[in-house]
């Protein structure tokens, strides 16, 4: 009789940890904006203007991981021999508490597209004023189970003309998501598709209230 209660308690604790991970990511995005006057772009470019890097690497100094950031070589690809060593130093903030402890796959992604909060242009980050729907009405990052290493410059593509990407996978049957203002909400699998699409876009002018 005690086993289900213990399992529920563990799952509740893991959901809390996932929310805390997203809150820390949201704070890092805002601190990055304070320093650079824009959010991290969907993909950052190295010194040669070509080599791609992930926003998860870019926010390392803002989640207390300056030492890991300093080890990462911006002049080399994310999967170079040198940078693969950094991959093994994955901060726990990027890993789902429901994933394997040794996993180097991230659980948190931005949605990349023309009208999303990060856009789709490498090297160009969005400013607050580029989000006319408002920070409290736009999603910044989402939780999803995918085989994507945390340093890999890859996220989840989104288009209004295509099916919604599959999200969640760690906390059935829904997923956590971070708003651009730093708030975190758990979305059930039954969330209205039109409302969710409205939250994904930064400039659609939709009236959405799911909090």
Secondary structure: elements and pairs:
Layout (H helix, E strand, L loop, with lengths): L1 H35 L7 E2 L6 E2 L1 H4 L7 H6 L9 H7 L20 E2 L1 E2 L26 E5 L12 E2 L17 E5 L4 E4 L5 H8 L11
Structure description:
With 211 residues, the protein is of the alpha+beta class. It has five helices and eight strands. The protein has helices spanning 2-36, 55-58, 66-71, 81-87, 193-200; strands at residues 44-45, 52-53, 108-109, 111-112, 139-143, 156-157, 175-179, 184-187. The strands form three sheets. It has a four-stranded antiparallel sheet, covered by helices on one side. A two-stranded antiparallel sheet has the order 1-2. It has a two-stranded parallel sheet with strand order 4-6. The longest helix has 35 residues, at 2-36. It is globular. The termini are far apart. The model has no long low-confidence stretch (mean pLDDT 93).
